[in-house]
Design brief:
Elements: E1 2-6, H1 10-19, E2 26-31, H2 35-44, E3 49-51, H3 54-58, E4 65-68, H4 75-84, E5 88-91, H5 99-112, E6 116-118, H6 126-136, E7 143-151, H7 171-187, E8 193-200, E9 206-214, E10 220-226, E11 234-239, E12 242-247, E13 254-259, E14 262-267, H8 276-288, H9 299-316
Parallel strand pairs: 1-2, 1-4, 2-3, 4-5, 5-6, 7-10
Antiparallel strand pairs: 7-11, 8-9, 9-10, 11-12, 12-13, 13-14
Helix pairs in contact: 4-5, 5-9, 7-9
The structure holds NADP nicotinamide-adenine-dinucleotide phosphate (NAP).
């Protein structure tokens, strides 16, 4: 797969690094609004072409797939431009600012017959795949309760993307999406009941959000997200017969299953706390198979995830300008 990278910030660096592990994958071009940053990125990752003009980037015939790594507020707009230019798209999380935007992107992808996927890399990690396998094998019995936190003490720059509402700032969309997506995946549905509370920063976004879900199948989830405090960032899945614990679950490199007085620990071969290669590999396999979506992160999953995030935002009273359009 020949990739083009749109925006060359922090996560694009991680992606470019990990892409080296994917057979047949190469970044052929990158777009960045800042020429110096763009050129430095291209030199560092040995990328042939740098573009300062986004139309020229989208019209580069060699690019097959675009990786969108801008702040959240641009995800939908940039993905749509890439799809209309005939490229497949891997878009960073959250896929869009709300479910309406997400649906628009997916409609364009279907019209253009191009693959699009939200970059929910966590689901492709070997440790998380092992967790799904243990549940499938009935190690812990029926899942009853899911607990997950993602909280860290972020920077205090009011203009930066974490705190700035104009860049989609706030804990829920930046890190809360991970506990929420794991709960939806593990419960195999969306919540029938949601309650949530948040503390707000001076910039008007959620600094910390605490969430309680009840799913139609009776599963409960207790989730927390913060860009203010370092939480204990474990995913714990409680079943009738045991439990599974995954430390730092969004970038999991290990998982432990406690069942029938036994303990089984899985440690991933890669302990580097990265793994963007798995999602990139998954995209290539799906595109080569002629698919327009991946069954692990389907269009429906992404729309339902955005709808769940929208419902949480309604509960906590967090509105972005994209919601008013
Ligand atoms: N999957 C993961 O593990 C993971 C981890 C971190 C972040 N993310 C997601 O990735 C996205 C980017 O996060 P990040 O941490 O990489 O942020 P970042 O370091 O701030 O990078 C954002 C990039 O977008 C560019 N940009 C900003 N506004 C732009 C505009 N109007 N037009 C064109 N380019 C623009 C920035 O360019 P300048 O340098 O010129 O400002 C920068 O290159 C976020 O949506 C985040 O949720 C995912």
């Amino acid at each position: 797969m020949k990739w083009g990278v749109y925006a060359t910030g922090a996560i694009a660096q991680g992606f470019a690094n990990d892409l080296k592990k994917v057979n047949g994958a190469v970044i052929v071009a990158a777009y960045a609004r800042n020429e110096q940053k763009g050129r430095t990125f291209c030199e560092k990752y040995n990328i042939e072409r740098y573009y300062n003009d986004e139309d020229a980037f989208f019209n580069d015939p060699e690019i097959e797939a675009v990786y969108v790594s801008t702040p959240h507020t641009l995800h939908a707009e940039v993905s749509i431009k890439a799809l209309i230019a005939g490229k497949h798209v891997l878009c960073e999380k959250p896929f869009a600012m709300n479910a309406n935007e997400a649906k628009r992107v997916i409609a364009v992808a279907l019209e253009q017959k191009r693959f699009v996927m939200e970059a929910l890399w966590t689901l492709f990690l070997p440790s998380i795949q092992k967790v799904f396998e243990w549940i499938q094998e009935d190690r812990i019995g029926e899942v009853k309760v899911i607990q997950a936190n993602f909280g860290f003490s972020g920077n205090n720059d009011p203009q930066g993307r974490l705190l700035n509402p104009d860049l989609g700032g706030g804990a829920l969309l930046d890190v809360g999406i991970y506990p929420v997506l794991m709960a939806n995946v593990l419960a195999k549905s969306t919540p029938e009941y949601i309650s949530a509370q948040a503390s707000f920063t001076d910039t008007g976004v959620d600094g910390s959000t605490f969430i309680h879900f009840k799913y139609p199948n009776g599963i409960f989830a207790l989730l927390a997200a913060s860009i203010e405090v370092n939480l204990i960032n474990d995913l714990v899945i409680y079943g009738e017969k045991g439990k599974i614990v995954v430390p730092l679950f969004w970038m999991a490199d290990e998982a432990t299953c406690y069942f029938e007085d036994k303990v089984e620990k899985f440690i991933s071969d890669e302990s580097s706390k990265s793994g963007y290669n798995y999602e990139a590999q998954a995209l290539a396999v799906a595109v080569n198979a002629g698919l327009l979506q991946h069954d692990l992160v389907s269009h429906q999953f992404t729309i339902e995830l955005m709808e769940t995030l929208d419902r949480i935002r309604t509960e906590i009273g967090l509105v972005y300008k994209q919601d008013l359009q």
